[in-house]
Amino acid sequence: MLLAASDDSAEELGGIAGWATDMMEALGAPGAGAAIALENLFPPLPSEVILPLAGFTASQGNMSLWAALVWTTIGSVVGAMALYWVGALLGRDRLIAVAAKLPLVKISDIEKTEAWFAKHGAKAVFFGRMIPIFRSLISVPAGVEKMRVSTFLLLTTLGSAIWNSLFVLAGYRLGEDWERVSELVSVYSRVVLVVVALALLAFIAFRVTRPGAGKRRA
Fold first, then answer.
1. Whose CB among 36, 96, 147, 197 lies 3.0–4.6 Å from 75's, allowing a Cys bridge?
2. Residue 39: exposed, middle, or buried by beta-carbon count in 10 A (0-12, 13-18, 19+)?
3. DSSP character for 177?
4. CA atoms within 13 A on the CB side of 148
């Protein structure tokens, strides 16, 4: 059972923090792993809240720090593997069929992306585990491109272990001030989203203003 201070904190926070706390109180460290697995499948669930909260929970004695680190990494790998198999089942042909129906998307863009992933896929999977939103999404193209499962597992485990350890340990060290971690990472997440939004807008503007944009896609 968590100390009274953590119970009060969870009640005050409610929402995702309260839900994650309930998972950890009911299941212990495996509950933290389950919460992170769901975070991988549903990116709007923020790891920057769940992970430091797991560290704080460990600091209160409800689970060991080692168990928190191991189970959150297991949860990340399980969630990533689920999305990998989604990509593998989707396959290249279905991806091309869907892309062909999307406005402003050319088949040649997909082919260039495939070539890029073939060359940089290992780096993308490893470092992608440390970028909000992309932490989950990077698993899908890895599945579509049929990256070797053993390679995907190794890179995902290493990248996830680094990301998770940083935030679990921060939450463990900060104790009741664990929310400071999520506040800092929220800024980082917003910056990433702004950069992605600007890149998407630039891509759309390029497609719309490019000569021959109205012609049939290749």
1. 36
2. buried
3. G
4. 5
Per-residue model confidence as pLDDT tens for the chain (218 residues): 444 344 444 444 456 667 777 788 888 889 889 988 988 887 666 677 788 888 888 888 878 899 999 999 999 999 999 989 988 888 877 777 766 665 555 666 566 666 767 778 888 899 888 877 777 778 888 888 889 999 999 999 999 999 899 889 888 887 666 566 666 566 555 655 565 555 555 555 555 565 555 554 44
Quote the Cα angle for 153-154-160, to 5°: 85
Of the candidates 135, 136, 123, which has an alpha carbon nearest to the alpha carbon of residue 83?
136
If you count them, how many residues does the chain have?
Answer: 218
> What is the value of pTM for the model shown?
0.71
Taking a C-beta distance cutoff of 8 angstroms, is the pair 92, 146 a contact?
A: no
